[in-house]
Amino acid sequence: MYNEEAGAEACVRRVVAALAPYGERAALIVVDDGSRDGTRPILRRLAAEIPALRYVERAANGGYGAALRTGTEKAAEEGAELVIFMDSDLTNDPADIPKFVAAFEAGADVVKATRFRGGGGMRGVLWSRRMFSIAGNLVAAALFRIGVRDCTNGFRGVRVPLLMRMRLRERGFPVIVEELWWCKALGARFAEVPVVLTSRADAQRPTAFQYKPEIFRTYLHYALLSARGIRPE
After folding, report:
1. Exposure of 45 by Cβ count < 10 A (0-12 exposed, 13-18 middle, 19+ buried)?
2. What are the backbone angles phi and psi of residue 83, rounded to the nearest 5°?
3. Domain count, the chain
4. What is the pLDDT of residues 42-74, one digit of tens each?
């Protein structure tokens, strides 16, 4: 989370409710990536109240990629076998978590949410952003050739031992595709589960993701490396 005061508590409570059927086998890790609004006091209060919540504070905002690495390290420290990454603005539905668990139990190492298979989609998302996502993923999927249609979707699950073998460098959102490049190089087994992406609530701050050509190029950089057979060091 970063400056998610308006939705922090709702997110935590909905995810914890979705994890309840798994009992002590599951926990929610929230990484506060240097929030400067009222997010931090809310999370501290919830951490004292909810046993299933593991709360990690970063002193300064390091970006999406840095926050994910912090969360992964905490998951490994807790002895987790699997992690599911999701945005804290509830544009991903925590009710979809069992789909990921089922795919892992079927043998997948990496489970990606997809907007581009039956049952998946986008609701309340601007057409310009839809077209950007559709075009980018058509190209990325053709280059990666791993059976994943929604390469840029940040709602995903990965086995922790696989993640711990990666040396991810991206600070921002392109880490999602850098991670996929590593997963392919490490011989991961992939699966996709259909989800519906929604838009942020009006009370929340605007999304930090920028739909710009340079972002498009950075995302496709890793797909091109994969297509050329170039592996991570």
Report:
1. exposed
2. -130, 145
3. 1
4. 999 999 999 999 999 999 999 999 999 999 999
Which residue type is seen at 176?
I
The rounded distance, in Å, linking the Cα atoms of 8 and 131 is 29
Neighbour tally for 175: CB within 10 Å:
22
Phi and psi at 227, nearest 5°, equal -65, -30
What's the one-letter identity of residue 57?
A: E
Q: What's the alpha-carbon Rg for the chain, to the nearest Å?
A: 17
**Is residue 2 in a domain?**
no
Residue 143 lies in a domain: yes
CA dist., res. 178 & res. 45, Å (int): 35
Q: Is residue 203's pLDDT more than 60?
A: no
DSSP-assigned beta bridge partners for residue 122: 197
CATH code, domain with 26: 3.90.550.10
Question: What DSSP string runs through 110-135?
Answer: EEEEESSSTT-EEES--HHHHHHHHH
Least confident interval from 28-32, 108-112, 185-189, 207-211: 207-211
Give the chain's end-to-end CA distance (angstroms, integer): 30
Sheet holding 110-114, edge to edge: 82-85, 156-159, 110-114, 190-194
pTM for the model: 0.92
With beta carbons less than 8 A apart as the criterion, state whether 81 and 1 touch: no
- Asked, for residue 123, whether it belongs to a domain, the answer is yes
CA distance 195 to 121: 6
Give 169's contacts (C-beta < 8 A, 6+ positions apart): 65, 178
